[in-house]
Amino acid sequence: MRGLLLAALLLALPARAQAPYSGAEWGRLATPTPGATRIIGGTGLGCIAGAAQLPAEGAGFEAVRRYRNRHWGSPHLVAFLTDLAGQARAGGFPPLLIGDMSQPRGGPMSSGHASHQNGLDADIWLDLRGLPAGSRAWAEGEGPPVLVLPDETEVDPSRFTPNHARLIRLAASQPGVDRILVNHGIKRSLCRMHRGEAWLRRVRPWRGHDSHMHLRLRCPAGQTDCQDIAPPPPGDGCDASLDWWLSEEARNPPRRPPPPTPIMPASCGPVFSAR
């Protein structure tokens, strides 16, 4: 009998250590874990220990909607964004507006994203108007302008400029970038402007993303618990796969039953429960 009780206790231990898949619970974790950085799992199912925080502002960038407490990520991502902002500034761009990255310990969010979970994702607003002094309250509230037409066939020519394309190209050309997600209307316009250029392979169409680009980095060297997704298909992506986004199936996807609740990687348990 004692052996059966011990076995039952051992079986119960992993369940108690398992981190919940709840954006509300992960969102209540206001601080990162101390110690070395450890990227665990993938951007759609993972967490991060030892996260770094992007400063509120710096040379060539400003973190917006800081009240969300989502400007955390791997030190690799923070360094990437500050370097990209410096390059953009040298190229004549106004300060980059950096939106959501990850939460202090990563994990699922209660709103806005299914990814951004392991400290390798960041949203960069495609707003190149340049915010005047004292306009931070505007950035915290309204958000960037939509750059595509209502039917999403292409960009709004009154808002999207060659400089938007130049900024996306700058970001997509950086070493370590896995992909950049933009609305398919933006991708279609980029194809007309830059068809055949190698960097377009990294720019992938996705729903929404009509006013910002979602940047994702590959797993840094030495992060053995980090999981990359499959690389983008060969080619520039300016093919029938892009046309699909205008199909009836894409515009009105069939309803499917909700999937089962995902199970967080086991290593995220200690990250979630650390004091």
Topology summary:
Elements: H1 2-17, H2 23-27, E1 38-42, E2 45-49, E3 52-53, E4 57-58, E5 61-63, E6 72-73, H3 75-90, E7 96-98, E8 121-125, H4 136-141, H5 162-172, E9 177-182, H6 184-194, E10 203-205, E11 212-217, H7 240-243, H8 248-251, H9 268-273
Parallel strand pairs: 5-7, 9-10
Antiparallel strand pairs: 1-2, 3-6, 4-5, 8-11, 9-11
Description:
This protein has a four-stranded mixed sheet with strand order 8-11-9-10, covered by helices on one side. The protein has a single domain (22-249), classed as Muramoyl-pentapeptide Carboxypeptidase, domain 2 (2-Layer Sandwich), CATH 3.30.1380. It is globular, with a radius of gyration of 20 Å. The chain has nine helices and eleven strands. It is an alpha+beta fold and 275 residues long. Strand 4 and strand 5 form a beta hairpin. Residues 1-16 have low confidence and may be disordered. The protein has helices at 2-17, 23-27, 75-90, 136-141, 162-172, 184-194, 240-243, 248-251, 268-273; strands at residues 38-42, 45-49, 52-53, 57-58, 61-63, 72-73, 96-98, 121-125, 177-182, 203-205, 212-217. Helices cover 29% and strands 15% of the residues.
Q: Give the domain tally.
A: 1
The CATH architecture term is 2-Layer Sandwich
CATH class: Alpha Beta
Widest sheet, order of strands? 8-11-9-10
| Poorly predicted parts | 1-16
The number of helices is 9
**Can you summarize the main beta sheet?**
4 strands, mixed
- Report the C-alpha radius of gyration, rounded: 20 Å
Question: Could you give the count of β-strands?
Answer: 11
Binned, the helix content reads 25-40%
